[in-house]
Amino acid sequence: MTVTAILSALSEEQQGLLAQLVQPEKLTRGGRDFWQGELHGRRVVLALSKIGKVAAATTATTLIEAFGVHRIVFTGVAGGVGPGVQVGDVVVASDFVQHDMNASPLFARYEVPLYGQTRFACDPALTALLMQAAKQALASMAPPFAMQGAQTKGRVHGGLIASGDQFVASAASARQLLADLRAAGHAPQAVEMEGAAVAQVCFDYGLPFAAVRTISDRADDSAHVDFPQFVNEVARHYALAIMDALVRSLPP
Ligand code: ADE
Predict the structure, then answer these.
(1) Is the Cβ atom of 80 under 6 angstroms away from ligand 1?
(2) At 218, is the pLDDT very low, low, confident or very high (cuts 50, 70, 90)?
(3) CATH second-level architecture of 75-249?
(4) Under a CB-based contact definition with an 8 Å cutoff, are residues 57 and 200 in contact?
(5) How many whole angstroms from its chain centre is CA 207?
(6) Alpha carbon distances (Å) from 125 to 71, 98, 131
(7) Buried b (16+ CB within 10 A) or exposed e, 177-212
(8) Pocket test for ligand 1, best of 75, 167, 230 (most atoms within 8 A of CB)
(9) Are 118 and 107 contacting, i.e. CB atoms less than 8 angstroms apart?
């Protein structure tokens, strides 16, 4: 049976899935806990990426090498930087770029050395399922507590996500980062700290990869303010509802 890895950035986003896991079995490798079991009749491994590109690449590689997973789906939060990408929205990744990769003048800015490419694409079929799951989950959910004063329900976007080892927490740094990326032809919808690393590992091993991020902030001066509250009151409910819908839609 195909084994699907569900990689979460934060433990709050994993808790709901863990509570539903049938015949859970925990194994520890490289200081990380991996939970094997079944969700809706599908074999899964749940893991935490930890924070940043190196940590996420290590977790992804272990999932592949030690647990033999066949595909990886990532769920986490991100800063919204695309036009109209608001807190409480969701971005499903089409592909990833590392905004802090710069080996110029040896290689073009943002190009990953020795790969001859800058962007790493997500798997189109798995991404289509994830997009469908995100739309279904958001449509069926009551607005979580923190969103109840919001004018609109969260919307689902698709597009490029930029990853780097930096929590983008000022409007000035977000502006600079975006201007530099756009000058090189990359227009991300969101910024986060892990996705591009997992995309690169999946590229190396030829594994399908898809990723979804709930927008927790606008990567500006107030990006950090309500972060823990947002994760608890919004992101963990979104992550559970989206992953639940996705797993149900996977072939058994
Ligand atoms: N994850 C959530 N918000 C983020 C931000 N502003 N920068 C980087 N990663 C994030």
Answers:
(1) no
(2) very high
(3) 3-Layer(aba) Sandwich (3.40)
(4) yes
(5) 16
(6) 12, 23, 10
(7) bbeebeeeebebbbbbbbbbbbbbbbbeeebbbbbb
(8) 167
(9) no
Q: Pick the catalytic residue from 12, 13, 89, 192.
A: 13
Q: How far is the CA of 92 from the centre of ligand 1 (A)?
A: 15
Q: Show me where the domains of the chain are located.
A: 75-249
pLDDT for 227-249, tens place per residue? 888 898 889 999 999 999 999 99
C-beta of residue 220 within 8 angstroms of C-beta of residue 167: no
Is the shortest distance between the CB of 223 and ligand 1 below 6 Å? yes
Q: Does ligand 1 come within 6 angstroms of the Cβ of 239?
A: no
Contacts of 25 (CB under 8 A, 6+ apart): 35, 36, 37
Does the CB atom of residue 243 touch ligand 1 within 6 A?
no
- pTM confidence score: 0.95
* C-alpha span between 102 and 186 (Å, rounded): 14
Q: Which residue among 12, 111, 192, 217 is the active-site one? A: 217
CB-based contact 192:1 (threshold 8 Å): no
The amino acid occupying position 37 is G
Instruction: Label residue 105 exposed, middle or buried (CB < 10 Å: 0-12, 13-18, 19+).
Output: exposed
